Amino acid sequence: MKLTKCMCGGSLGDLVVEKDGVKMKAQKCGKCGETYIPGSEMLRYDMIKGKSSMVRKVRKSGDSMVVTVPKQIIEKFNVHDGDVIAFEPHGKEIKIKIVHAE
């Protein structure tokens, strides 16, 4: 969510900041100088830098795209070979449901 005002009451302007070679969209207060980086940009940074074990890259396999399932998800939701995963679009996000094979 894009902010319109800083906590100090100052106006925010858009800018691009760079951290460890990764450019991120941010906002900076013209009054106090505070910089705000949205959570989505920080997540993108973590993904690029490989800092999250729950993040996976999308890979191409033939005419399809493939995503591996993190071990933590497999263990927590008891996922096995042969189970089916259903993708449900929700706005700009995707909900994933696991249907266990019988």
What is this structure, in a nutshell?
Helices cover 17% and strands 37% of the residues.
What is the ordering of alpha helices and beta strands? Answer: EEEHEEHEE
Instruction: Say how many strands there are.
Output: 7
Strand content: 35-45%
Shape assignment: elongated
CATH class of the largest domain: Mainly Beta
Q: What's the number of domains?
A: 2
What is the number of helical segments per DSSP (H or I, 4+ residues)? 2
Low-confidence stretches: none
Main β-sheet, in a few words? 3 strands, antiparallel
Structural class: alpha+beta
Level of helix content?
10-25%
In whole angstroms, how far apart are the ends?
42 Å
The CATH topology assignment of the largest domain is Pemi-like Protein 1, Chain: D
Mean pLDDT, all residues: 90
Biggest sheet, spatial arrangement of strands: 1-2-3
- Based on CA atoms alone, the radius of gyration comes out at 19 Å
CATH 2nd-level architecture of the largest domain: Ribbon
